[in-house]
Amino acid sequence: MTLTFLGIESSCDDTAAAVVREDGTILSSVVAGQTALHAEFGGVVPEIAARAHAEKLDICVEQALAEAGMGLSDLDGVAVTAGPGLIGGVMAGVMLAKGLVAGAGLPLVGVNHLAGHALTPRLTDAIGYPYLMLLVSGGHCQLLQVDGPDAFRRLGGTIDDAPGEAFDKVAKLLGLAQPGGPSVEAEARRGDPARIALPRPLLDRPGCDMSFSGLKTAVLRARDQLVDAQGGLTVQDRADLCAGFQAAVADVLAEQTRRALAQHPAPVLAVAGGVAANATIRAALENVASDAGAQFVAPPLRLCTDNAAMIAWAGMEAFRLGRRDGMGLAGRPRWPL
Ligand code: KG4
Ligand code: ZN
What we know:
By secondary structure, the chain is of the alpha/beta class. The protein is 46% helix and 19% strand.
């Protein structure tokens, strides 16, 4: 029998539901974002997020089932993000999932959001274990060795900001639009990455950890020096700052991934997260993979950013190992892999 699961995700600022089959077919994947709701506050506001999730979750689930042409009775289980994340949103998802499984007599599986991201390359590219996973988004930055659905080994990660967060902050201090990743990348295309020297934090030390907050501060300092010397930033200055910053992030991510692959050889390097959309960063990581003789896998962006198909998939992987959660399933704001 081929399993079919409903997945539910509400741990940050996207409300999502999806129906996925065990053979990797995504029958539906609905994502309702909240960017507009949080825009005026310059970041995700937990109270607003929780309320929006509570309002939209059942609509997303209904839509996901309708698009898949299914009712609850056609499912083999429900998987829901049980953390880590903003607890109000997580609770809203977990409560809805409990209601659904209680009514329909279905199994329930609570999923770690990070495991959802980390297992996505198996959904999209049917790769086997083990593989090395680089998760780079606005909230995450981890190098994980993935040995099984619940066997993750953290080889390194950021000790401060996530790289997407750094892109967003750099965009803010250069007066560019949010989210910062795409706008910094667009500016960087016209810039010279070598003109303004920026640091490559932590590369002078052993290990695979990363740091991005000092890099952001270095951009701020370089900006202020240019402003003081010239009385303002030129269009070219801004492009050069973006290009220099982007090159530094790419170097740090590539070098630490290279080290992780050297210390823990794996047949596949997979990347996920919004930052993996960056062409310069992606090219640097592809080089690292090819130098190490590893296959490079980057799931399509809509499955790299927050979605519920990855939760349904991770839930099925755990279910096959015998994992079941009861009505006691609790949401967890913190839940390391
Ligand atoms: O995975 P994601 O959609 O959300 C989570 O953080 O979970 O990632 C969003 C982050 C934002 O910080 C955004 O600025 C960054 O990914 N991002 C990029 C690019 N597109 C999105 N960063 C660099 N280059 C891009 N092209
Ligand atoms: Zn995420």
